[in-house]
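Section 3.1 - Work completed
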Amino acid sequence: MTEQQIAAVAESVRQPEKGSNGWGQGIAALVLVGGLAALLLSGTFQQESGDPKPAVCDASDGARPSKPASGEQLCRALNRADLPTLLGTPTEYAMTASGNESMSSWADGTKTVTPEAEVQLSSYSVKLSTSDDDIPVSEMAAFLGSTAESRTIGGHPAVLYSDRTIALKFDLGGGKVDSGPGGIARSLLVAKDTKDGGGYYEVSIWRQDDVVPDDLALFRVAETVLPTVPGWTAG
């Protein structure tokens, strides 16, 4: 990453209304989705933070017609005009919006493609992903910690859980990136069908100021966005 690229990222992810705290010029919060995934720095920064026009999804982001839902489709579902209102921050707007598809390789040689999307506002970041894993959501709760709670979203079994984000420090002078503990992310794993036959959607939110996110905001986003995602079945 060049010094110019680092500067652009730092400007896009800076924390609002927060003074100097030793983290340097900019901080990005990343979430370990599901408590099992690798560290991801997602987001295609499509505009400068000073531009009041909301970011739009790039048609080239993870477009895979063979998938039930591509990264682009997830981005378009998540990047709604009313997303700031659902998050409880109606005066904000999407600063960045992106969709992509990550690939994981397993010991037996198989590969798994995971479509995902992320939208960032001044106060919140929101991530949406989907997986075709054949493990029921009800069984995955055991791997998500003792505080995981069983819930229902649109008639679909779901699990609510917390995870720790990782904050990235961008040293613009030295061209280095360091990491440290960030805030809390709240996530919902939601079964793809009402019978919990395998596969799930995941919605995660976290704040730029490290304050614990509002669960009601998470539920509003999940209940509104998921029925618009390709492959969702009504409860």
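Second construct:
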Amino acid sequence: MRKTDDKPVTLNSVPHAELAPAKINLALHVTGRRADGYHLLDSLVVFAELGDRITVTPSNENRFHVDGPFAGDVPLDSGNLVLRARDALRAAYPRHAAQPVSISLEKNLPVASGIGGGSSDAAATLRALKRIWRVPIDTTALADLALPLGADLPMCLAGRPLLARGIGERLEAVEHFPALHLVLVNPSLAVETPSVFRALASRDNPALVPLDTADTVLDWLAATRNDLEPPATAIEPSIAEVLAALRRSGAAFARMSGSGATCFGIFDSAAAASRAAVAISGEHPGWFSAATVTRT
């Protein structure tokens, strides 16, 4: 007689959608490198209301569909992090995840652009599948399962302001961090992260200064860096043009995010950010430019 515990768990029949928000490294210090080649980081990370969207629907067979302005740049095979995330959760919880699902990705963010698009998509997939499949996994265990897929996955699962250390897996929530009005600009060029790390002049740099030592976020940011910005700019000089455009448009602060090439500018209001995004798009119609606000 078949045991009850061996039966597949009934699927949640309601489709579930999740935002996969853009991840912005407000500051990123490279503080060392492990023996296995992974770099040690010290980063303040925030997430935007702008992002991709994942929708998971019960289905009679596994499907994966991509649409949106950057759909053409997304691989549809097993190299895609969305599918790898699905398969990792299914392998860990086969009884809960036996039934097929259809996954739809609305790709609104440029790929390979330093704002965590693929990692955020995979994190959103895990959150959606956890609900659809009714997987009994807590936040910590889900982050542990996600980490082998990529160092950014645990922070993208959290999706809130945080300090990330180690290779990105040691997370500390930043409470009461203010919402920031941002403009994200990418020169429509992908920069390969391994190339940027290989071009680093120094891998043993000072860590971030404590947040509570500054009067304002802008004061604190002025005392920080993105150590990947100089090597990325050397590889792709248009990053400097993007930063200059943000500053001309009135940004109180501008910096590259992650390993690039997307840069962000901080503005004092949503209206100012919107005007700047429109102006930059007018001057550079081939660039990606969008106003957003960070999640608190």
